[in-house]
Amino acid sequence: MGYPDTFQGFCVDGPTTWNTFHKSELKPKPFGDHDVDVEIAACSICSSDLHTVTGGWGDYKGPLCVGHEVVGKAVQVGQHVKHLKVGDRVGVGAQVWACLECHLCKDKNENYCPKLVDTYNAQYPDGSWAHGGLASHIRAHEYFTFKIPSALDTNVAAPLLCAGITTFDMAAYLSILKPGADFHMVGLPDKALPEMTAGLFAAGAPKLTGSHLGNHQEMDALLKLAAEKGVKPWVELMPISEKNCGEAFQGQKDNKFRYRCTLTDFDKAFSKA
Ligand SMILES: [Zn+2]
Ligand SMILES: [Zn+2]
Fold this sequence. Notes:
Layout: E1 7-11, E2 22-26, E3 35-44, H1 47-53, E4 70-77, E5 89-92, E6 95-97, H2 103-106, E7 117-118, E8 122-123, E9 129-130, E10 137-141, E11 145-147, H3 154-157, H4 170-176, E12 182-185, H5 198-204, E13 207-210, H6 216-229, E14 235-239, H7 242-253, E15 260-264, H8 266-269
Parallel strand pairs: 12-13, 14-15
Antiparallel strand pairs: 1-2, 3-4, 3-10, 3-15, 4-5, 5-11, 6-7, 8-9
The structure holds zinc ion (2 copies).
One zinc ion binds near residues 101, 104 and 115.
């Protein structure tokens, strides 16, 4: 089997072998009218990925394919998908589905939907599993698939999909906002925010807000802001492979990257058969 019936992904088997990756076949959910299939070009590594594979957030059963800062090309779109077409460069973050019917979803709080499906290690209501971005493809609902502005490079756009804007130079980002504008944290860093002076807030009256992930509109706004202002996450690149996945996750654990590791060259790692 192969795409579109199965995807290939670099997976781990369990917390005791968290930095040993092997290529496995993954079965995606059945393709729906609102789904988008993305042929992945790059995926950066988030602390959540590390917390998950090491078992920090609980035990799991492999093969598990993590990764939720995904950029690639839309290769199949469901018949009801309106805002994307085949060939678009798109990104997928830490959420791939919500009911879009409950009052939270209707209030643009789909990132708090009680039925939400995370990008990996999560099950859809029909029982199928969601698989992450260290893979040949990812299947996500169109509402959680974002068009990447052309000004953003694929490898540096990837971290925006979850970390959003990492904390290392939050002060710099706050200072470039329009006066009174919002700086919305869409990531959940596991470290304290950096010290910020009162002067920074006095200068431009920026508002600092936070949330779990961020909703659809905020993600679009973030990508637009990054494209317009030339915001570039600092990334170190590594071609994806079983060995490099292990090294990348070890490096993430050792806090070695300045400041994000983006795995690249997916086209070479996955056959197009
Ligand atoms: Zn993340
Ligand atoms: Zn909902």
